[in-house]
Amino acid sequence: MDPIKNPYAPGAGSSPPELAGRDDVLREADIALKRVRAGKPTKSLLMVGLRGVGKTVLLDRIRDMAESEGFKTMRVEAPESRSLPAILAPQLRVVLLELSRSAKAADLAKRALRGLAGFVNALKMKYQDIEVGIDYKPEPGLADNGDLEHDLQALLEVTGEAARAGDTAVAMFIDELQYVEEDELASLITALHRAAQRQLPVILVGAGLPQLRGRMGRAKSYAERLFDFPMIGPLTDAAARQALERPALAEDASFDNAALNKIIEKTKGYPYFLQEWGKHVWNAADKSPITVRDVQTASASAIAALDASFFRVRFDGLTPAERRYLRAMAELGPGPHRSGDIASELARAVTSLGPVRNQLIAKGMIWSPNHGDTAFTVPLFDEFMNRIMPGDDWRAA
Ligand SMILES: Nc1ncnc2c1ncn2[C@@H]1O[C@H](COP(=O)(O)OP(=O)(O)OP(=O)(O)O)[C@@H](O)[C@H]1O
Ligand SMILES: [Mg+2]
Q: What DSSP assignment string belongs to 60-125?
């Protein structure tokens, strides 16, 4: 069918034509935002889930909701190699400048900007990647100790006071939060804790891989009480059908029942895969309704597209030893797997594989759902590993 009309949108963070099956988490977020705005005690939200389930899309959707509720928002993504103060400072500056334009918040916002100037000066030595120019002179003693835990807390506090004075609230959106170093996470948690104790209108909405939850708990044992961790998983069958059918309907097209079932079977309801299959099936079909035959024809090209992008970008960043480890996991199936079983596949001792396993966790490729268990963070990655490293050659390396 006409590729120009193709509604499906596979891609990292691409807004889907139909955001299916996420009403619960959106409702939860809406309540949290409204409560913060009203100065009520509220837990911050950290959405956790595997690759490609739609965390980034939800983060952006919730940010839109916050903006229309009158929040000042900032949105950052934690890359693997940058410090939290470096990614937060420039965004915080923008929020504070905006607040400083409101008559009611101006004085406190300017004070917060002085705090930010002191914060940046004091932390520049430790976090050399901080780059932000601030036209305000530091206020001695305000957020300028040079200790992130103390300074971030002070900074978030004056920011919250400014927001409150301006009858607004601040929402921080941080994607890929699992990449933030544990001591920096600890500082963030402390700062939010303080803001919560003072009932300041500040909230964090974060997203990350499933290991985030454990990392937060290790960083600060009380993190569990401060945050809600909605699990973002694959879509239910009903939601997956909706994700496929609604966008087609908007273009006057439809699917046979068997075609829908086939796509759900192939994708296991994972949003990224649904978009990819939707796109390829649409292009392969001659006419509506789309049939199971069209799905069969299109599956090879959908898989090829995933192999070239979604899976490939993850694979490219791996060392040979990491690839072998993942290949050994794939040999055992989708998982989770016991460390001992993976080690046996590799004919190695479990302890000698510890470093590789840790690197793979740090890179966000695997996580540990239970002690001693290892699982892929990328759905269907076992099948990909078997395709990209076929046969038994990997054993010899
Ligand atoms: N609820 C949904 N219904 C249909 N499609 C969705 C839904 N959520 C996300 N998608 C689609 O899934 C794909 C992946 O979304 P997104 O990038 O937000 O996932 P993610 O969880 O952030 O992945 P990653 O961990 O790789 O960053 C996008 O193409 C998006 O359009
Ligand atoms: Mg994402």
A: HHHHHHHHHTT-EEEEEE--TTS-HHHHHHHHHHHHHHHHHTSTTTHHHHHHHHHHHHHHHHHHTT
